[in-house]
Amino acid sequence: MEKRIAILPGDGVGKEVSRGAVTILQAVAELFNHKFHFTYGEIGGAAIDEFGTPLPERTLNLCKASDAVLLGAVGGPKWDLMPGHIRPEKGLLKIRKELGLYANVRPVQYYSSISGISPLRKEVVEGVDMVVVRELTGGLYFGKPSERSVQKGEASVVDTLFYQKNEIERVIRYAFELAAMRKGKVTSVDKANVLESSRMWRETAEEVAKDYPDVQLNHMLVDNAAMQLIKNPRQFDVLVTENMFGDILSDEASVLTGSLGMLPSASVSASGPYLYEPIHGSAPDIAGMNAANPIAMILSAAMMLRLSFGLEEEAEAIENAVEQVLDAGSRTRDIALFGTPFLTTEGMIEEIKAALLDNEAIL
Ligand code: NAD
Ligand code: IPM
Ligand code: MN
């Protein structure tokens, strides 16, 4: 198989973990006889520095001309005081919008060998296997107006939570399709006791549910969901929610696995290309230190092989290699118990690559 993959490393640890995804994909290409063409593009702070804009036309065109996009992370203290429209994060929001990436799929998986790293008890996190489906191109992140003003000397500010009904429907439908292939349960999370947008969200979920008689739907208010996620996470199969609620709940959910550095994601559209990125950010506190966990990014590459290219065996080979190195005790600092040894980012990438090559020799 021959595919064009756009690589957008971005900023901070985004650059370090992207290298890991490319290394692993190159190994997969060799092992399974595929040709992956990697083309690099700038986004975020790196693009602001070079081109004065967080998403240059060239990067957008590159993505549109590719079969899939892999993105590291954007942002960092260097650009934190820039005005809203030229912040690094604006580049990420724009690429999601331009590519029509309406659903962001964030699997949360329990790994028995690192269960001890979660601050939650093993009995609580054991067997967690859920997916957060986050609406990605609407809601509070994109509604207009979003601005400040001063009237009669009084400063005020507004952000808007806006949805068209079809935007709510398509992401909920995606969640039902996914649940139908998994454990058959959708939890729709909203704030319907307060927000009109949430009441429409809830109604829409009920309507969509009629088309999926084998999938069970329940509703949960977002504050309760934040609590239930750490109290009884095994109750969840597919959790679907508004853009900002999903952003917050998925970082929280990473604690079930043990670290933000473990969670991959896929962002899907009606017609492709899809975009794959870890859920974490540029981690300024550890950027440039060869200390970031590359697993979230490497698992995002596995999701790409499965969802964009239909390469199930190759995706599983990566996932198995990750599981194998964790079982063997390899750790980056974020998933190492205090006082125990850990690898660098590069070290972990090499271990995963070695496990991948090793497994293939056995097959
Ligand atoms: P963050 O996700 O970058 O980091 C939060 C914490 O998790 C930090 O302590 C960090 O060291 C740790 N962490 C994150 N990824 C890790 C990894 N792979 N391995 C080990 N530890 C990891 O969130 P933040 O600090 O709130 O944000 C920093 C910057 O990143 C901001 O500019 C923010 O806008 C941006 N950001 C970007 C994305 C993205 O590009 N998708 C996502 C989130 C945040
Ligand atoms: C994420 C990030 C982004 C978001 C930011 C950087 C715009 O937190 O991908 O989760 O809020 O969507
Ligand atoms: Mn986030």
Automatic annotation (TrEMBL):
The cross-references to InterPro entries, in alphabetical order and at most eight, read: IsoCit/isopropylmalate_DH_CS, IsoPropMal-DH-like_dom, Isopropylmalate_DH
- Which sites bind substrate? R96, R106, R134, D223
Sites binding NAD(+) sit at: 76-89, 281-293
Q: Which UniProt keywords apply?
A: Amino-acid biosynthesis, Branched-chain amino acid biosynthesis, Cytoplasm, Leucine biosynthesis, Magnesium, Manganese, Metal-binding, NAD, Oxidoreductase
Its UniProt pathway annotation is: Amino-acid biosynthesis; L-leucine biosynthesis; L-leucine from 3-methyl-2-oxobutanoate: step 3/4
Ranges for domain Isopropylmalate dehydrogenase-like:
4-352
Q: Supply the EC number(s).
A: 1.1.1.85
UniProt-annotated site: Important for catalysis, residues: Y141, K191
Check the record and name the Pfam families matching this protein.
Answer: Iso_dh
Q: Please name the GO terms that the record assigns under molecular function.
A: 3-isopropylmalate dehydrogenase activity; magnesium ion binding; NAD binding
Q: Which family does it belong to?
A: Belongs to the isocitrate and isopropylmalate dehydrogenases family. LeuB type 1 subfamily.
Tell me what this protein is called.
Answer: 3-isopropylmalate dehydrogenase
